[in-house]
Automatic annotation (TrEMBL):
Keywords: 4Fe-4S, Electron transport, Iron, Iron-sulfur, Membrane, Metal-binding, Transmembrane, Transmembrane helix, Transport. The keyword 4Fe-4S applies. It comes from the Bacteria. The chain crosses the membrane at residues 48-68, 89-109, 143-163, 175-196, 228-251, 291-308, 328-347. This is 4Fe-4S ferredoxin-type domain-containing protein. It comes from Hymenobacter frigidus. SUPFAM superfamilies: 4Fe-4S ferredoxins (SSF54862). Residues 374-402, 406-434 form the 4Fe-4S ferredoxin-type domain.
Amino acid sequence: MTAAPVLTAPPLPATSPAEKLTLAVVAGGLLALLLALADANPGRQTTWFYLALGLISAGTLAWSWLKYGQHPAGVQQNNLWLRDSTGRGAIAWVTGLVLTGFYVVLYWFSNNDGQGNFGPLNNLVHSLDGFSQWLRARPADQWFLYGTFYTLAILLMGGRALWKYRQSRYQLIRTASVMFFQLGFAFLIPGVLQFFQQPEYYFTYFWPLKYDYLFPGTVTALVKDGGLGVFMVFWGGMMSLLATPVLTYFLGKRWYCSWVCGCGGLAETAGDPYRHLSDKSRTAWRWEVRIIYTVLGAIIIITALLWTHFATGGTLLGAAGTVAAKGYGFAIGAVFSGVIGVGFYPLMGSRVWCRFGCPMAAYLGLLQKHFSRFRISTNGAQCISCGNCSNVCEMGIDVQQYAQRGEPIIRASCVGCGMCSTACPRGVLNLENGPREGRYQASPLIHADSLRILS
C-alpha cells in the first residue's frame, strides 16, 4: 500500500537583487524614522525625519518600478495568498499591529498638553514645524503629521498602482484622480485656508461621512465667519443633499468612493495589496448590511436631534446631544474608521470601513441600488470561471457568480473600482451607465444559450 502523496505549495518566485536593494532602502527609511522618534536633539530630529521620508519614498517608487514597470502589463495574482505579507501570515499580523498601534497612539496619546508636547509622537510632529509654518502659518500638530503621512502613502502607493495597472486607461485615470484630490483638496487647500486665517475645510468630505459639517454648531460657526464660511455651508449642504443624488444617478457611487474620497483613495492605493482578503461569504454580507445601515441611521438621528435641540433654543436635550455627538465621533469617527478601518487592512482587506461602517457609502449605496443608471454588465457565455474577478473585489462581492449567470451586478456595496473588469482575461465585465430600463435583466446571450439547451 503506497502512502498518499504530500501536497506542497509551489515555491515563491525569487526576489531579484535589485528589488532587495530597494526594499533595504525602505527599511533604512523606517530605521531613520525610529531615530527621529528617539533623538532628543531637535536639529537631528528634523534631519532624521526628512531622511526617512526621502528613503521611504525613493525605495517605494524604485521597488514599484522594478516589480511592475519592468514586467508585462496585466493583473497578476503574484502568489498573494502564499506570502506572509498578503496571506495573513506573520508579516501581515505584525503590519496590522503596527498600524493599529499607530492609530491608538495618534487618537488617544498624542494630544497637545498645552505646552506644545504631543506625547510619543512629539519629535515627529515638531519635525514638521517648518513645513507647517510655510503652508499653514502655524506650528504642526498631530493631525498635520497624520495628514502628511496619509497623503504620502496615497501618492507613493498611487505610483505603484499606476505601474501595476498601466494597461487599463480607466485605472490610470481613477488612480490619478484620487491622488489629485487627496493632495490638492484634502491636504494643500485646507492648509492654505489656515494660512489666510480662514476655517480649515475639506471640500471633498461631505455629510454624513464628515458628519459635523451639517451639525448646527459647525454651521453657525462658519456663517459667523462671513462670505467664505457661508459658501462652505452652502457647498456642504448642496453636495450632500443635491449633487450626491444627481451624480450617483448618472455615475453610481464610484464618482465618490473610487474617484474622490480620501478613505477610498487610501484603500485603492496603500490597501491594494490586501484587496483579495475581503470576506465573500453570505455571513459577512449579512453583518455588512446590519452594521452599515445602523451607522447611517445613527448619524441621521443625531443630526436631526441636534437641529431640533438648536431650534428649541437648546432646551430640548440639554447636554445629551453633545454627549451623543461625541460618542458617535469616538466610536465611529475614531475607532471604526481609523483603528479598525486602516489597522485591519492586512487581515480583513482594504475596504473594512467602506464596507461595514461608512455612512456615506451606505447613503450612496441606497441611491445606486434603487435609483442609479450604473451597473456592471456581464457576458456569461464568455466566462471561464477563473475567479480573478471575485479575488480582486475588495467589497466582498462574489462577482464570478454573477458572471457565470450573465446577470448584471447592481449591488449597493459596489464602489465601481472596475478591478473585476480589469482582471477579467475575457472581457466579460463592463462598467455601464445605461438606461434604467432593463438594468436587472441578464445577458441575452445567456437566454439564447438556455433556450438551445432546453430544446
